[in-house]
Task: structure prediction
Amino acid sequence: MRSIIKLISLFTPGEKRRLIPLTLAVVVMSFLEVAGIGALGPFMSVVADPNIIRTQPILSSLYQFFGFTDDRAFLIAMGVGIFLFMVLSTVFKMFVLYAMYRYVGNRRYTLSHRLFKQYLYQPYSYFLDHNTSELSKNLLTEVDLVVSDVLRPTMDAFARGVLALSILGFLIASNPVVALATGAIFGVFYLTMYGFVRPRLAYHGKNLREANRVRFKAAGEAFGAIKDVKILGKEPAFSQTYAAGARHFALSQASRQIFSTLPGQTMYPLAAGFAVALVIFLLGTHGSLGEMLPLLAVYAFALQRLIPEIKDIFQAASQIRYYRHTVDVLYSDMTETHPPVLPETEELNPPSDRLPFNREVQLEKLAFSYPTSRAPVLNEIDLTINKNTTIGLVGTTGCGKTTLVDVIMLLLEPTGGKMLVDGNPITDKVKWQRNFGYVPQQIFLSDDTVAANIAFGVPERLRNPAAVEQAAKVANLHDFVTTELEHGYDTLVGERGIRLSGGQRQRVGIARALYHDPDILVMDEATSALDSVTEDAVMDAIHNLMHTKTIMIIAHRITTVRECDEIFFLERGRIIARGKYDALVRDNPKFRAMAKVNIE
Result:
């Protein structure tokens, strides 16, 4: 029950309100079903003894109202009427079920979309602490499980429960002793069985989620590092890891199916024994077959409807119990995770409102520490970046270069000091970030066209072909695209850009960063994985932009920053030297040593 309450609490007020007419429709559907069952009693009474038409007030009134003169004709009319009523009841039931399943389907869409937005709009630091394969699994698998194996069974169980209670209420009104005995026998049986399987379902449900996590992790890591897997011959290791997760997943599913269907399978001999006992009881209390036939027919039809409903209610309860851990995951990520700041509307092509940047960016005593780290990553950083200058950030691995740039872009919030733009504090993070174009070391390319990858995230109908071409020209990519690619900018690059060379991928990354014409371009070790010839070609594209844009270059290779207007040399989160390349080589032994290694 707690899982169901948690799940419904995730619905919007409008989604909760739409449950009200569905609930009323289910109640009406149940009453129609019971009315159809109840109509069989009078019909069978007339079959057993046509004289009842004259002694039973309602039947007598109907007989006279419609002008019948023949008992057989009245009996046929009763049968046809009951049949048509059941047909209409079934049609209404189909509409109700359609509305229920449409409601369930829409919740699959709304819950997954809200969870995706919950993840997508989290701050950058959130993704440093969470495994992306786990987030993908929650989106693509856990939401489906919650909807198909918790929400839908809950609504099914409610509809069947209302019907079962309605039938049981009708039977109690018809014969309280038999009805109460029926309810007691089947109720005790199902409660006993549910008590037996309940902890086992919870255990296997928890195992299922862990096994699914192992499967996603193994597949994501194997395919994401396929070159390393091939070169190191690690196919068996990943295959065995995936196999272990898949095996436990399959066994957990099989166990769930066994325990869920166990009560239903054991119900049939119990139902057969109960039917025999009912016939014997009715013979003893009603005497003749003619007297007990109407009641027996009603009970037979009612139980034929009631037993499958009870069985399905139990299976639904078993499913809910088995998958309740998925509700906990969804609830936690949608309510307990730090709520992101969501935009009022999502614009596919948002206006390029930027925080004005006319003179300089100043960092004063800036510091940053990760929540899980004791030592600061950045400590008392003081620097000024003048507009349309090119700066270099160099230092050994782990000195804080990339973190410093992440803080400047406000992907990470500084934990100390302050940052000023044109002498003013930044009041709108999003507008400040619109000033940046970012080129990482590893360029992510989607399995799409060159144009789509340059105008990344922009729908084709909103894409600006002139801006795509201009960005490619500045990045020294245009000639290659137009002369060497068969379909030009419409050429598919393959998954992760596999059909392009490393240098070509980097230039696509530069063109992407330039598509929106940013004021500040960040090169985050963007050439460190390239050979010297390819690096020179990429850096030529960067040199073309010098003094027309503000450029920040993070580099391991000291030669990459030789042309920078100013170089900042970092060590253990501090700037230990700054100046032009030649001055640093002359005056700073550590910088000179790094430059010497690079040259050699």
Remarks:
- The CA atoms of residues 225 and 231 lie 10 Å apart.
- The mean pLDDT is 81.
- The two ends are 69 Å apart (CA to CA).
